[in-house]
Amino acid sequence: MEEVILVDEQDREIGTMEKLAAHEQGKLHRAFSILIFNRKGELMLQQRALDKYHSGGLWTNTCCSHPRPGETAIEAGRRKLIQEMGFDCELTYSHKFIYKVELDNNLIEHEWDHVLIGSYNGEPALNPEEALSWKFMALDAIQKDVSVNPQNYTQWFKIILQQPQLNKLQIA
């Protein structure tokens, strides 16, 4: 059973809960979203596996998940990058934000999302249980496609794309 860290409105830990139950009940919990850029400043996108418990088949940021109890967002991010995308790289903390959205399968994402950034120029080795496909895209091209085809992208990724910090995130 995978647990998430429940937090209050100030991102202070207040307990743990089974992951699916937290999403069914819309409980505020800690999460992370990783944005990996290549040397051209393009963002690596992941297409979620079709059988994910929510948002299957949608395009999103490079990797996202939840830290385990006792694990920092950066430790969790590196663990999940290896598990989902088949590579590891240094990650740095950028910022965090809170959001609450309704998803498919009657689930609710209510998260303090910690945004982590890194740099990688190779090809990932996708875990087919996690990711269906991937691609590098320029941010302006992503934003244009999201405006035309919002249904193809995850809710949290669309929120990240609207944040002013995004312009500062690209790594050389």
Task: Outline the structure in words.
The protein has 172 residues and is an alpha+beta fold. The chain has one domain (3-168): Nucleoside Triphosphate Pyrophosphohydrolase. 22% of the residues lie in helices and 36% in strands. It contains 4 helices and 9 strands, in the order E-E-H-E-E-E-E-H-E-E-E-H-H. The protein has helices spanning 19-25, 73-85, 139-148, 155-161; strands at 3-7, 13-18, 29-37, 43-48, 59-60, 63-65, 91-102, 108-119, 131-137. The strands form 3 sheets. The chain has a 4-stranded mixed sheet with strand order 6-3-8-7, with helices on both faces. The protein has a 3-stranded antiparallel sheet with strand order 5-4-9. It has a two-stranded antiparallel ribbon with strand order 1-2. The chain is globular and about 40 Å long. 30% of the residues are buried.
How many helices? The count is: 4
Query: Could you list the spans in which at least 5 consecutive residues all have pLDDT below 50?
Result: none
Can you tell me the CATH topology? Nucleoside Triphosphate Pyrophosphohydrolase
Order of the strands making up the biggest sheet: 6-3-8-7
From the N-terminal CA to the C-terminal CA, the straight-line distance is 39 Å
SS-based structural class?
A: alpha+beta
The sequence of SSEs as H and E is EEHEEEEHEEEHH
- Residue share in β-strands: 35-45%
Described by the principal axes of the CA atoms, the overall outline is globular
Regarding CATH, which class?
Alpha Beta
Helical proportion? 10-25%
In CATH terms, what is the architecture?
Alpha-Beta Complex
